[in-house]
Amino acid sequence: MDHVAKLAKCASKITVFIYNHVALQAWLRTRKTWTEILHPRLTKFATAFIALGSLKEHKHDLQALVTSKFYVESRYAKDKKAKAVVTIILDNQFWNDCHGIMHIMSPLIHLLCIVDSDEKPAMGYVYEGMYRVIDGIKKNFKDKKRLWDPYVNIIKDRWDN
């Protein structure tokens, strides 16, 4: 799943860029809909995917930032790394891929949160959870087999071994 690794790398570039520049964070915090990108509270096993989902929620705020007069006239806009990040933020394919991956990962993250909680569920509950994950992925893709089949097969292959 090289495309997932590439997507996570792009998301990491955006996150690092935003958190390395205090002025950009300050501008984003003035927006009513802005919350922090990173939420370390959920589960440590899915941090990259949780951050990816958070970025997806902040798509419009991030696009507003990089197209704002504040940003365009700032010294940040002239940096080579910044230009690469702006290209990612304005790329519709990146956001479409984020949306697709979150359709796959949201049922898995939910199960990981249950398994990672202080109350350890019985093994039978975990097995039922895996069936629910597979059903959730199928439902998220509205039963379009060509979209969910490769991911469900990976889960089934790992599960059977």
TrEMBL record:
Q: Which InterPro entries match?
A: RNaseH-like_sf
Per the record, the domain of life is Eukaryota
Q: What's the protein called, per UniProt?
A: hAT-like transposase RNase-H fold domain-containing protein
The species this protein was found in: Lithocarpus litseifolius
